[in-house]
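Carboxynorspermidine/carboxyspermidine decarboxylase: structure tokens wanted.
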Amino acid sequence: MPCNGINRQERVLPISKKRLIFVRENHPDKKTMIDYTQIPSPCFVLDEKRLRENLTLIRSVKEHAQVEIILAFKAFAMWSVFPVIREYIRYSTASSVAEAQLAFEEMGNQAHTYAPVYSDREFPSILRYSSHVTFNSLSQFEHFYPQTQQAEHPVSCGLRINPEYSSVSTDLYNPCSPGSRLGVTAGQLEDSLPAGIDGLHFHTLCESQAEDLEQTLAAVEAKFGHLFNRIQWLNMGGGHLMTRKGYDVEQLIHILKTFQAKYPHLQLILEPGSAFAWETGELVSTVLDVVDNHGIKTAMLDVSFACHMPDCLEMPYKPKILGAGEPVPGKPVYRMGGNSCLSGDYVGDWSFDKPLQPGDRIVFMDMMHYTMVKTTYFNGVTHPSIGIWRPDNRFQLVREFGYEDYKNRLS
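Answer:
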């Protein structure tokens, strides 16, 4: 989900019907090679080696900066690889009772939970599965705080703040736009915090750089810094895209260490989501038909943008395709068409070296973060399977979906 129009770049080999291979060279001596002809279509496929590379970097930041970095399920909740993640990172953040329960059952610990609003029906379960609960408003805190004091285990309460500053350029992902429903402004707090608030939480970044955090911290400190001596922890939210090529990791560590030195009593928490799964996997699809309408050729796929890649339409953004590029004169050009009945279920255009035919594979790049968790069953279209490409060059099919999965979503 590229909030700031980030260009996702990889080196690719030309598309081939016989052998479709993806090569990534983070390190010259550690190439990842995936033969996509071994993978069923449609299918989300995660590369474990690339995931471990991201996790290694994230753990390094955590250790050097002496902060807590936790996984945001809203961006990546593929629990079949939680055993891998637990080797590097122990904790996670949840945005709902379902995510909190997933943290408890599959990550093996209670979640740091924040939701824009809690219901009376679900809040007891939120408490059961959470170690930290952050409230979006003072009224929600006042309503639910008595229950937190009666929980079976200690629950640390926090308050989401709105510094009224964000470097995010896309309004859809900007939580600090005028009239935002997210977070408490400094004017609402004045010079005090309610008794029982242990921490403050801000989330203003989205696939951002280290300098964006630095600018945000300046705004947060200017408006809320006088309250820091009354809290125990500060959650800096997500959007720290530290695994993206070109991200200044050393600057991030310096920013965090400098801030920590100024407020040594605060536990600092970061909860990125995209950074964990950034460029770790693809969505494999197949051309089923080619439609030509007044010279516009559309490759009809066995996947849907509306159902399986909704962020492409929400943002909107154009994903990269293995072996394809921007339209070039003299090369075959195609739109990619989804298999739902929504008229706008398409994205285009791409150039290919050869004309596309039914049976050709289309591999959409970088589809593991956000994209996979936002899929739907609109039209009842077949949901992509989920698999893992293991470091020994072996594909493991983790899950297939069928009629019962669709039926159980309805009544």
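The radius of gyration is 22 Å. Residues 66-277 form a domain with the TIM Barrel fold (CATH 3.20.20.10).

Cheers.
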